[in-house]
Amino acid sequence: MPQTITTGVKALVDDANTRIRTLSIDEAKAMHGRDDVTFVDLRDPREREREGKIPGAFSCTRGMLEFWIDPASPYYKPQFGEDKTFVFFCAGGWRSALAADTAQKMGLKPVAHIDGGFGAWKKTGGPVET
């Protein structure tokens, strides 16, 4: 008997988006490079290699996020202990919505994510390094 999925990914993302701050590309560009903001790239290394990256962004694959945020975890990264605004992004804005929601639930704040993700950033001329 096949599995019955009762909540799809679209519903999960839509639900997350009701609780988190979503930045337009213009808002994100205005925040880029500020000392009080950390951009967090959730894409995997192959995506970053293929598409390029936002200069100065901190890379944290989606699968390690919770472990890197929690100071009690053996995988904790001190970047998540800094008093900054964390701006999450992925390729298109779905993983980053889920990640921002999870980070916020864990107590990280303030957090936001970029509407349309890296794809929209690149398409609108945001700075990219290869």
UniProtKB/TrEMBL annotation:
Check the UniProt entry and state the signal peptide residues, or none.
none
- Gene3D superfamilies with a match to the protein in the record: Rhodanese-like domain
Keywords assigned by UniProt, alphabetized? Transferase
Q: Which GO terms describe its molecular function?
A: thiosulfate-cyanide sulfurtransferase activity
Task: List, for all copies, the residue spans of the domain called Rhodanese.
Answer: 33-130
Q: Which PANTHER family match?
A: THIOSULFATE SULFURTRANSFERASE PSPE, THIOSULFATE SULFURTRANSFERASE RDL2, MITOCHONDRIAL-RELATED
Its protein name is: Rhodanese-related sulfurtransferase
What organism does this protein naturally occur in?
Camelimonas lactis
